[in-house]
Amino acid sequence: MKKLVIFGFDGTLADTAPGILYCFNTTAVAMGYEPVEHSALYGVIGTPLEYGFKTLFNMSDDEIEYAVKNYSKLYSQKGKEMFTVYDGIYDALRELKKSGFKLAIATQKHRMFTTDMLENYDAADVFDAVCATDVGTNLTKSHLLLQACEQTGVSVEESVLVGDGTIEANGAEEIGMDFLAVLYGWGFRTKEETEKYKCSGIVAAPAEIVPRVLAL
To answer: CA-CA to 190 of 20 to 30 Å: which in 167, 179, 198, 214?
Structure first.
């Protein structure tokens, strides 16, 4: 039985797409680029901002440095408030906690934004560890997962990651951690998309998180 359940943030715990799209497009338009559609965020949400600006707008390194600073300012002012927690997530977290599991977050979102969003929705005290990136650092998902294990005192083998995309899947596989693939977020959309990754189970809705974890 597992002892630690680690969650991605964007697309797993919360739908953060509205705020992310607003900040990407507002920043890019001010720099002379055309805005992107909502669907363009697939595969970008939850990744480092540098990757997002390069992928969505093909910016140069100098432009990306400026864009990241402007995005961060916009996100701190407005973007971080433009999100909703997926229905059923609170119930799943409470049930896991009641069952004795330790809970953690591993996200490449900046730490300041992550903690602010958790506090705004009274969820900060649910997690035993919140592992995120700091300004000027871009830790990989596998590094963040190892941090979560270290901070909670639980081994990789006794842990499972719940996430919605390829970055989570690859990060878990790199260190030999079990992975539950979420289909309700912004990464994987169908079971077929997960088949080339090493998944221990599929989660089609938040209500399925607890039974999938208990089955491991």
So the answer is: 214
| Contact (Cβ atoms closer than 8 angstroms) between residue 202 and residue 194 | yes
Query: Which residues are registered as beta bridge partners of 5?
Result: 103, 160
CA atoms within 13 A on the CB side of 85: 14
Please give the model's pTM, rounded to 2 decimal places: 0.89
Give 142-163 pLDDT, tens digit per residue: 999 999 999 999 999 999 999 9
Q: What is the C-alpha end-to-end distance of the chain, expressed in Å?
A: 6
The domain tally of the chain equals 2
What are the pLDDT digits (tens) for 182-199? 999 988 989 999 999 999
Look at the block and give the residue holding tokens 């900040």.
23
CA 156 to chain centre: 19
Domain stop point among 51, 81, 111? 81
Compute the distance between CA of residue 81 and CA of residue 76 in angstroms, rounded to an integer: 9
Query: Which of residues 81, 101, 129 is at a domain's end?
Result: 81
Other CB atoms within a 10 A radius of the CB of residue 176 amount to 10
Residues 66 and 158 both lie in one domain: no
Secondary structure class of 138 (helix, strand, coil) = coil
d(CA 199, CA 205) in angstroms, rounded, equals: 16
The larger pLDDT score, comparing residue 125 to residue 127, is at 127
Q: Any bridge partners for residue 181, and if so which?
A: 163, 202
Could you list the residue range(s) of the whole structural domain that residue 45 is in?
17-81
